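Changelog note: in this version the structure field was regenerated for every chain. One regenerated record is shown below for reference.
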Amino acid sequence: MRLTTRTNLALRTLMFCAVNHDTLVRKQDAAQAINASENHLAQVINKLGQDGFITTLRGRHGGFHLARDPSCISVGEVFRSFESGLPFMECFSDTNTCPLKDHCVMRPHLSRAVESFYSALDDLYLSELVNCNAGLEAILSVEGPRVPKRCAPVHVDMTATVAVIAPETVA
């Protein structure tokens, strides 16, 4: 089994975001840190955003950051997101032209093997790849604008008595 370059770049990009967890990172910085072309990385960033792994902000001061905590992003989930649409081999394709397809019993065994591969990665989380990994932090850390903290909604108690204080009169 061989993973696509896109899947490899997706995992590197998520690791880059996790190391720089409170920083709005730029595509240029990520591309340089993970040794990827900006054009190829743009496609990966787009899919990561569509699939809810990262949040992207457009514009001159834009960038991207993790949409979820690294401990909530399963490596198996990432791999499925990028790989599941690609047939493992011809017999998994809608355009299967294999002359053995009507009599071959290998497909269910391969299907089970592929699912076992993903399942083995379901229990591995992004946080496990980056936490306490000083070498990785040294390679991937960048300085940049911080991701703004989300403000907690203010709860207004409408049943509370409000005291009105009259302004002092000037004599």
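Spot check on this record: Helices lie at 5-19, 27-34, 38-50, 75-83, 106-122, 126-130, 134-140. The longest helix spans residues 106-122.
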